[in-house]
Amino acid sequence: MKRTLTALTLAAMTALPAFAQDEEKTLFFYNWTDYYPVELLAKFEAETGIKVILDGFDSNDTLLAKLQSGGAAYDVIVPSDYVIPGMIKDGLLMKIDTPSMENYVHMKDAFKNPDFDPTHEYTAPYLWGVTGLAYDSAAVGGAEIEHSWKELFEPRPEFEGKIAELDTASDVILAASLYLGIPQCTESNDDAKRILELLEAQAPKLKMYSSDSTVDRMASGEVAMYHVWNGATARATAQRDTIRFIYPKEGTPMFRDNFAVPANAPHPENAKIFINWMMAPENAAAVSNAIAYANAIKSDEFLDPKWRAMDAINMPEEYAPRLVPTMDCGPAARELRDRIWTRLKG
Amino acid sequence: MNIRRFPLTREISLLVLVYLYVPVVVLVGYSFNANRTATVWSHASLDWYGRILANPTIQSAAKNSLVLALCAATAATVIALLAALATSRAFPGRGGVEAVLNTPLILPEIVVAVATLMLFVALGVQLGLGAMILAHTAFCIPFAYLPIRARLEGMNQSFGEAAQDLYANRFRCFRRVTLPLLWPGIMAGFTLAFVTSLDDFLTSFFLSGPGTTTLPVYIFSSIKAGITPEINAISTVMLVISVLLVSLSFFLGRLRR
Amino acid sequence: MTGNPALRRLGLLTPALATIALLIGLPLILLIWISLLQKGGSSGVDWNAAPSLGNYIRLAWEEDFDGTMILNTSYLVILLRSVLQAALTTGLSLLFGLPVALWMAGLSRGQRDLMLLLITIPFWTNLLVRNYAWLIILREDGWLAQAVGSVSPIGPIPLLYNDLAVAIGLTYSFLPFMILPLYTVFEKFDWRLLEAAHDLGASRSRALRRVLIPIAMPGIAAGSLLVFIPCLGAFVTPALLGGGKTLMLGNIIQMQFGASRNWPFGAALAVVLLALMLIVMVAMAIWRNRRVR
After folding, report:
1. pLDDT in tens, A78-104
2. What structural domains does chain A harbor?
3. ipTM entry
4. Yes or no: is domain C74-261 CATH 1.10.3720.10?
5. Mutation test of the interface with chain B: which of A24, A26, A28, A34, choosing the one with the most B Cβ atoms within 10 A?
6. Per-residue model confidence as pLDDT tens digits over C197-255
7. Residues forming beta bridges with residue A163, ordered by sequence position
8. In a domain, B120, yes or no
9. Which residues of B touch C99 (CB under 8 A)?
10. Which of A56, C136, C239, A34 is nearest to B38 (CA)?
């Protein structure tokens, strides 16, 4: 009896740490909503035995709020480039040392030393895209329009009353700044005044401000011009082939979304397995094919020819110099942005 | 001439019913739309219902919403019923008590949601279903309380008094006399609370944790590209479930009478 | 159960009062405190800031882009617009809700229950999805717009992205919150009172005005409150159906807790909204008391 008890105790003592080391086969994945094909999660589970529980967020601000609250423990998150330095500084991310991962070799060289995480200590690239200008070429008889923000802010008569502008202050004010040659995140009152004047002149020519149903509004022909993301444009183009996308020459804001692991992640080992798995070319391409955004992995051979033919997804090399990384504005710039927006729509 | 029939009320009511149901018909109709773009009709198809079956995210969101609404509305209705019984007769400070009970109504939801998030974080409460049930119960209380209270206000107290005069004890009197008379108010209160919780976005948005995304949170964060018929399909499924639930509770309510 | 009515009352009230105090009252105190702080850090609140009224002053006065202090009417305009929109919606809900509740009260028990069911069913679907349905119904190449266009003497009328669309959407969202409390009152109304008034020679409309409306007052008050207040904070419907050209109170509060990351200012806006609601409620209470006396 006593021996049994000792054996049991011993077994319990040895079993406990072993149990703690062997992570539960679960992964809490927190990504932008509709930014990951659910079918791929089933494939991941089949190959690794890890069950992924997917939750969605709508903006970097929401992600930040959840992370800073400390009350919600996710394993893999998808922050955009510009919020990452702040997250690292606040100690919100865990080091994952991406270059040590097996599939790191598949990463395109252009993505290897990003400004926001120079040695990929904390992040691995997911998808990237731009915020540019989409228009329906049928509205101008199939003609090309100028690759400039001018077409949005001082539209030609064919587009007047048929334009949708994004309903987010940051996107609209950034585009206006690029058009006017004003630095991103300006804190100058004079600049703010010029931006407001431009936007006030533009407002009567707009049909609406809207950040929702972007694909639907273009595909159904409800609007003929949209200040919008390239991926949404591509999805709309797949339904209405007269839609074109332009990368404005004054500067086209770019966003690079990345995988990262929160400092309080309950299953960090599973997170690393997932991130490595996502860098495999066929898996990266499966995401791009479903979501219509380009990835950072050498996977072009697996890319759907439908997307490969579109400028919106497969950006022509000569536009690369136009890309402008988005910055995380400081409190003063954010307040100025707020004041412009409130005046515009007050 | 019947004094209880007012001219035009019937016509207006039928018009209101049309107004209420046209969007529902559109919503259900477009769930059978083959086109991915929710606003463009191409041809009929059941694809989107198939997609729900293959989408664990949307399924768990729907399940989370139902569990949350059921727990929060039940808790809120019980709490509100007790409070309504206590405030049915005048006492010093009744006005103040009622004002306190109704505060969730006069607070903008975003404010309470953010403030609750900060409080929970300060107290170390784990975000997730538990946190959401607590917060939802609190803001559902007035939705349950008001109809019960309104029902009690004009209810003839003399029935209860008569029953007590006839030596029914207080509990028996409550169960046999007050409760049946109060039942429509309780059902209205529960329904309001349930609908309010089921449709809540902001509080759940701030308080949801890993694996506890609710349907409204899922829908609201997926509107950037546009609502897909998949969302119409899951809404239709939820509608059918809810109608069954409500019909059941009404049926039970009538049995009790 | 105890025989002491005061003690019994306290027991019945404790769960409700405790829940509200802990989950509403405590956060609210935190909120008022935050509204006196300053924005800061990445989380949105500088917890070490000295309390000040700066956020409240900013609501009406601000430094212009050229450096002078000016009266900023933007927030006042937004406030006024939100109040008008909410009042319009409450009015419309009452206009349509009252006849429906009256008609329902006159039905047989079974029919009444069926009507209750019919009125609540549409609200078992998500607010956004319902608004989306309106988007489809009101769109400019939709059947409704074409039908209106073919009978209207001035040609097609835009149904979407204007105040009318927002009013239709908001009324749709909150109508049952008006009908249900009204119905609850009418349902237990003793109709013999009305018959008596009528028999005593009061005209139908007079009987209605002098007997029915006073009795309906608690229902009207509860319904109006339930419609007006969520309306005041609404931002999804206005953004979706109104085309997003103007801001509502809900939008700017939401903005402060989102992209602007200025929680203290958001909290101040919320406290102002709260004060406004309190004024409305106190006014309503005084008015009701005067009527009773």
Report:
1. 999 999 998 999 899 999 999 999 999
2. 2-128+255-317 (3.40.190.10), 130-254+318-345 (3.40.190.10)
3. 0.83
4. yes
5. A34
6. 777 777 777 777 777 788 888 889 888 888 888 888 887 888 889 888 888 888 888 88
7. A206, A225
8. yes
9. 6, 8-9, 12-13
10. C136
